[in-house]
Amino acid sequence: MRSSLTPVGNLWALLSLFTAAVTCTSYFLPYWLFGTQMGKPVSFSTFRRCTYPAQTEERSVVMVEECGRYATFSAIPSLSWQICTVVTGTGCALLLLVALAATLGCCIKDLISRMTGRFMGATQFVGGLLVSSGCALYPLGWNSPEIQQTCGNTSNQFQLGACKLGWAYYSTGGGAAAAMLICTWLSCFAGKNTKPSIY
Which of 21, 60, 160, 194 is the most exposed place for a label (fewest CB within 10 A)? Predict the structure, then answer.
């Protein structure tokens, strides 16, 4: 098997796959925000939650200790989190698409030219920008009643109250930053120059 990538291109493909995996995994996991409710640890992401209140048959409220996504898109606690879910998900899809194509470029000759590599780098930049925008929108939803039940009434936009940001939030943002800055730059040198064929 011959590669269509330069040695820098092989590094780009590997780093692209790594940043896409970190970003997409962190986006999916509900560990963006940590707090407590009724003495139980609670965590959120944009569209998932761990540990939530439920009403029993006796009309008392208990905390159900399991993770899951919100039942419907409209059940996501705030409009900003709904937008964040779509924007971040779209960015993750772009990063994953480029990473898979770059990985194929390691195995298939003449798949990625210099110009194609640059186009893929531009796509990575857009994907990273979308994910970063989603991370920037996330704090706008901290004033929703559901978050205030967990973080306290002092929580507001860009004020966490009693909660703290989780590792998945940082991993999502870090993966997006690496894709935007490092991967985009490496993509400029990823593809081999195609020699014009004489027919």
Answer: 60
Residues 6+ apart with CB under 8 A from 96: 20, 24
Backbone angles phi, psi at 116, to 5 degrees: -65, -40
Token duo for residue 58: 């006796």
Which residues on neighbouring strands pair with residue 33, listed in sequence order? 44, 165
Which is nearest to 24 in space by CA: 68, 102, 88? 88
Query: Per residue in 56-90, pLDDT tens?
Result: 888 888 888 999 899 899 999 999 999 999 999 99
Span 110-131, pLDDT tens digits:
888 888 889 999 999 999 999 9
- Name the pTM for this structure: 0.89
Q: Determine the residue type at 91.
A: G
Question: Can you give the three-state secondary structure of 48-103, one letter per residue?
Answer: EEEEEEEECCCCCEEEEEEEEECCCHHHCCCHHHHHHHHHHHHHHHHHHHHHHHHH
Could you tell me how far CA 177 lies from the centroid of its own chain? 11
What tokens appear for 9 in the block?
A: 């291109």
